[in-house]
Write a structure and sequence with these properties.
The structure holds two protein chains of two kinds.
Chain A (H helix, E strand, L loop, with lengths): L3 E4 L2 E4 L5 E7 L5 E8 L3 E10 L2 E4 L6 E3 L9 E3 L8 E8 L8 E3 L3 E5 L1
Parallel strand pairs in A: 2-11
Antiparallel strand pairs in A: 1-3, 3-8, 4-5, 4-9, 5-6, 7-8, 9-10, 9-11
Chain B lengths: L2 E3 L4 E5 L4 E3 L2 E3 L5 E8 L6 E7 L7 E2 L2 E6 L4 E6 L8 E9 L6 E2 L3 E6 L1
Parallel strand pairs in B: 2-12
Antiparallel strand pairs in B: 1-4, 3-9, 5-6, 5-10, 7-8, 8-9, 10-11, 10-12
Chain lengths: 114, 114
């Protein structure tokens, strides 16, 4: 079965360190997204990609970057982790909105920055 | 920019009773989709129900139904015959027609009492 997987599921790091969260999907979806979930804010969009070599900033992109070198993967990098980036991060992918456009989520990665 | 508002941070319901979760949204678009997602303690995001704005009929999925009031920009979720397994965080979300990105509300925690 097709799926979307994130790793690591849990990570603790220190302020200033670079962190990369991996996201891999086997749906063959062109669209991929990174959200962060914080209490009181719901899910907020960090970055997204509509295909290989395409990346776009979301509403909370400062301090984050992504790259899309193939269809399956969209890693999220925190260049210099800050305590404000302690959160749960979700990767998602979707089909074209011309089809169902349904969003499929990974299981989330909990990041703690000390 | 589109916004989604969930005004109830927490709700409680007795097992077997009915509960309604509120959601309002702001958009100038005429073509869009609305969603309710469930997030149990496992963190997995599960699509509960979706509504196309062009459809006047309210969507229904088993015990879950929506009250879609397009003019009022309101999209509430009704859960009938509540079960312990319904306890979760519920998110309302919006997607512009032809678009790919979802905009989420802050979420409502639903507690089910036995």
């Amino acid at each position: 079965d097709a799926e979307i997987t994130q790793s690591p599921r849990h990570k603790i790091t220190e302020t200033g360190r670079q962190v990369t969260l991996a996201c891999h999907q086997t749906w063959n979806h062109n669209n991929m997204f990174w959200y962060r979930q914080d209490l009181g804010h719901g899910l907020r969009l960090i970055h997204y990609s509509y295909g290989v070599q395409d990346t776009n900033k979301g509403e909370v992109s400062d301090g984050y970057s992504v790259s899309r070198s193939n269809t399956e993967d969209l890693p999220l990098t925190l260049e210099s982790a800050a305590s404000s980036q302690t959160s749960v991060y979700f990767c998602a992918s979707s089909d074209s909105p011309a089809n169902t456009g349904e969003l499929f989520f990974g299981e989330g990665s909990r990041l703690t920055v000390l | 920019a589109q916004t989604v508002t969930q005004s109830q941070p927490e709700m409680s319901v007795q097992e077997a009773e009915t509960v309604t979760l509120s959601c309002t949204y702001d958009t100038s678009e005429s073509d869009y989709y609305l969603f309710w997602y469930k997030q149990p303690p496992s963190r997995q995001m599960i699509l509960v129900i979706r509504q196309e704005a062009y459809k006047q009929q309210n969507a229904t999925e088993n015990r879950f139904s929506v009250n879609f009031q397009k003019a009022a920009k309101s999209f509430s979720l009704k859960i009938s015959d509540s079960q312990l397994g319904d306890a979760a965080m519920y998110f309302c979300a919006y997607r512009r027609g032809g678009g790919n990105k979802l905009v989420f509300g802050a979420g409502t925690i639903l507690r089910v009492k036995s």
